[in-house]
Amino acid sequence: MKIDVLTLFPDWFDWFRRQRHVSNALALGHSLEAIDLRATTPLGAGQVDDTPYGGGAGMVIRVDVVAAALGARWRADPVEGRGSRRVIALAAGGRRFDDALADELAVEEEITLLCGRYEGFDERVHEQLATDVVSIGPYVLAGGELAAMVICDAVFRKLPGALGHESSPIEESFSAALGGAPEYPHYTRPAEWRGHGVPAVLLSGDHGRVHEWRIERSRRRAGEGL
Ligand code: ADE
Q1: 78 pLDDT higher than 60
Q2: Chain centroid offset of residue 141 CA
């Protein structure tokens, strides 16, 4: 998988690329590149934004700036380029990111993430350049960079081998194996801590009962909305 992130803060991703499951994925041949939107701006002095038509506070990232960055990256027309790859604009008002969308993205060959800043993108970026507009939650961030990292994190850990041990992502929160429910509780040593023990079934060595207990607790958590 190849992920390109278009951002005004490419340095932010240096730290992210060093994190274990990301560096594992990169070592396996996947790629994550952060591309500076200012590097290809057709405007002078590294300008990327402008005042909103109709007035109001804040600045809006220009569609021609994003188009120039995509055109340079793909060496192709930026509107046509979205026909062969997922182009995701990050915005608070977009489709809510969830495990199902992470699964959907994990099988893509190429994803481009567009990080907004200020008041976000000119609407024509969403309409003409992106294939999706995605939000990581109902709150407003200062920009799309952290949202891009959340998406990359969730998607990279689904790639075979990225976690270093294959079974982990199978039976985890919101997975099909748990019927979309949150994961069951985990316990490890010590078996007793300040008078708080561990459910006896987990110490029983009976894998069938352990499995039943886990499914039951996962369903209970779903019911409780935890
Ligand atoms: N940009 C600003 N807020 C955001 C959010 N909640 N999700 C994705 N991108 C954003």
Answers
A1: yes
A2: 14
Domain final position from 156, 190, 211: 156
94-116 per-position pLDDT tens digit: 999 999 999 999 999 999 999 99
Q: Is 91 in the pocket of ligand 1 (CB under 6 A)?
A: yes
CA 145 to ligand 1 centroid distance, Å: 9
- Does the predicted TM-score (pTM) go above 0.90? yes
Range of the domain at 20: 2-156
Identity of the residue numbered 216: E
Total domains present in the chain:
2
Residue bearing the CA closest to ligand 1, atom 7: 135
For residue 160, give the DSSP letter.
Answer: T
Cβ of 92 below 6 Å from ligand 1: yes
Say whether both 79 and 137 belong to one domain: yes
Distances (CA, A) of 130 to 87, 126, 154: 5, 5, 20
pLDDT at 167 over 70: no
Residue nearest to ligand 1 atom 8, measured at CA = 135
Among 139, 146, 149, 152, say which to mutate for ligand 1: greatest number of ligand atoms within 8 Å of CB.
139
Q: What distance in Å separates the CA atoms of residue 105 and residue 118, rounded to the nearest whole number?
A: 27
